[in-house]
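Something for you to look into today, if you have time. I want to see for myself how the chain folds. Leave the record below and I will have a look.
***
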Amino acid sequence: MNLAKKALLPACLAIVLLSIARAADPPPLKEGLWEISGQSIQNPGEKRTDFKYQICRNHAYDNAMDALEKNAKGCTTSFDDLGGGHFASSSSCNFDGTLIVSKGTYTYESMTSTHSESYATYSPAYKGKTDEHVVQDQHYLGGCPPGMKPGDRITGSALLRYRN
C-alpha cells in the first residue's frame, strides 16, 4: 500500500466511525474550544483505547468536515432525523479492498454537548481488526485560546495544527 493510501485510510475510518448526522440538519454547535472524549473497543480481543483531546471549531470547519464526509470516495452514507435532537447514520465504504460498514447514533443534548455511539465492521479484517465500537462525548469549554485556529487540536501537551 503506498504512502498516500496509508494516510487516507485512517481518515476514511475516522469519517465512517465518527460520522456526524449533520446532513439531517441538526442545530449548529457553538463555536469555540471543545473537549472530545471517549473509548474505542476493537476486536478481536476487546482492545480498549480511551481518548481525549480538545479541538477549536467554528461553523466553517464543521461544514468542511461535513463536505469531506459527504464526498468521501468509495462511500455511501445515509442519515435519519429521529426527532428530539437524535440522529442515526449508516455508511458503507470500500477502500483498497476493505469493506467498512458502520452504523451510529448521534444525540445533540444542546448546542454545547453531544453524545455519539458507532459500530463498524471490516471485511476483510484491517490490520487484524474485524470490528470496532466507539462511544464519544463532546462538550463546549469556551473560546479557543489565542493563536489556536479552527481544526487545531490539543492532545495531551501537544498542539496539532489543522491544514486545509
